[in-house]
């Protein structure tokens, strides 16, 4: 009984019971379908053990879409509560848990994997490589992310969710005020996924610096590749700060140390600084790859080369450096003093300059182009006004430190960051998803159904978040679980909720569009359905396991465009083909993730048997790997010739 109440949370009421039953049914359903269609072996050999960057990318994207659903349901629960004054269908405790899981999941388990998925799908193909530099490590990164996300999600039905906000500030989350496993779930979920992310950063830095096709100098790389290079550098420098701060918080909570507890002489301000030294660059980690995608999309669909390429690169590099020097703007009100606040206010505003340069370059690329308004282009054209006006202009307003004393922690801020995160990152990932979908799967997503989804989502988005600027100015603070009537907050909140549900409809329409297109979508036989410009479109869709049968030689930016114009040749003959060296599949990255999950679970509940078992598992897997010598195989020439012939390339 004690177990059922504490861990299965029986006392929590019907919400938890229904979820428990639904989760059990869904899991049984999946197992049944796999068993019925005899797909276990296929799942294991084709997907769970794969080290192919294209498949890992697809798995990241599927996971991101699932998490978008979970985070979206959280969002709609919150918006339902706020639709009317004095609503109480969620208790204050539930509301706290929901905004915490919503924010954490959206940023770390939705935006991050979506971006890393796009990187995996596109980067090696765009630079003419056969895989990333460390394919086995890439699989480990994915499984660490996946099991970290699963651990975090488990909190919903086992032991209780974290409730300290996605920023998890002490002293709220110290033992004294926040006992129980919820906060430990936050720490361990992020920690496990974060280790995987650092490895991804290293992997893509090396891949881009070392594995480009001959002739592709840095200044001939496609803009998306540039954005990934910069993002990887940001990851490598920012994520270790998160690792450290989470480690300190864990030690505080499990071993009663006092890094941050004031009662023991600790310093919560240290947490806030360390957190945002990671947290601010993190917002560039989730936006820069979207900028990269918009650049590809704009030049493809305007059929023009990207305007101001060097200025684009320079502005991204500038954003990287500035991005590390502005973190204090997240806590102007915490008493740093006028001089410090002015410095960080001005450095924040400076970021608007390179960002503005990029916007003007996109607009100039479109200028006088014959633009084709396909789905990727539509999402890009929604991004520009939403991001610039809703996110950028309000961002500069927030950077004015004295004004921030008014805006701070109000709905104005909520509206601002949703305009950047949705108008920038989510729109960017949708553009990328539609753009590279044919490359991933060999068919196009239906344009007509996609347009319905687009309008529902984009209009809903503005209906949802525009009124929140007003609410903020009217004094409604963030993280407020209910509000009294008579303050004039009802109508804007009600409109906002309608917008939220319209976005939900948009999401469902996207799912419908995908399901419909799997059956009826236009097959892509050319490999280049958009008449695009970069190397990935020179390959058939989907690309064969080894990507390029012969490594291309690059002469210019937009290489594929010039090949199509007849400026360079890229034909190759059978006699040039050589056996290709590729890594073998392995089940160990999956098992390593599983062992980390077990260890993480042990930390969450302080059940150290699990910690020891899990870490021993990790160690055993690493040892086994170090004594393995034939983890590569060769694809013989005959097989390559056959594949290339069947793809119509020879
Ligand atoms: C369907 C779209 C969405 C809706 C309706 C929505 C709604 C909300 C609401 C109602 C809150 C809580 C505000 C409060 O009471 O303090 C919130 C917080 C938040 N949202 Fe969203 N959201 C959506 C999508 C997203 C996305 C895509 C992201 C990130 C990529 C995101 C990131 C966040 C973050 C970081 C918080 C702050 C959580 C915290 O205070 O700890 N949201 N959102
Ligand atoms: Cu910031």
Walkthrough of the structure:
This protein has 650 residues and is mainly α. The protein has helices at 2-6, 14-36, 40-48, 53-82, 92-126, 135-154, 182-210, 223-255, 268-301, 309-323, 338-350, 352-366, 375-399, 401-407, 411-441, 447-473, 490-520, 559-564, 588-605, 608-626, 637-646, and strands spanning 580-583, 632-635. A two-stranded antiparallel ribbon has the order 1-2. Helix 9 (268-301) packs across helix 15 (411-441). The radius of gyration is 25 Å and the shape is globular. The N and C termini lie far apart (69 Å). The structure holds protoporphyrin IX containing FE and copper (II) ion (CU). Copper (II) ion (CU) binds at residues 280, 283, 326, 329-330. Copper (II) ion (CU) is lined by residues 280, 283, 326, 329-330.
Instruction: Based on Cα principal axes, name the global outline.
Output: globular
What is the number of beta strands? 2
Helix content range of the residues, please? 55-70%
Query: How is the quaternary structure best described?
Result: single chain
Biggest sheet character: 2 strands, antiparallel
State mean pLDDT (0 to 100 scale). 94
Question: How many alpha or pi helices?
Answer: 21
Main structural class: mainly alpha
* Low-confidence runs of at least 5 consecutive residues: none
Strand order in space, largest sheet: 1-2
The end-to-end distance, rounded to whole angstroms, is: 69 Å
Cα-based radius of gyration, to the nearest Å: 25 Å
In short:
By secondary structure, the protein is mainly alpha-helical.
Q: What's the structural blueprint in terms of helices and strands?
A:
Blueprint: H1 2-6, H2 14-36, H3 40-48, H4 53-82, H5 92-126, H6 135-154, H7 182-210, H8 223-255, H9 268-301, H10 309-323, H11 338-350, H12 352-366, H13 375-399, H14 401-407, H15 411-441, H16 447-473, H17 490-520, H18 559-564, E1 580-583, H19 588-605, H20 608-626, E2 632-635, H21 637-646
Antiparallel strand pairs: 1-2
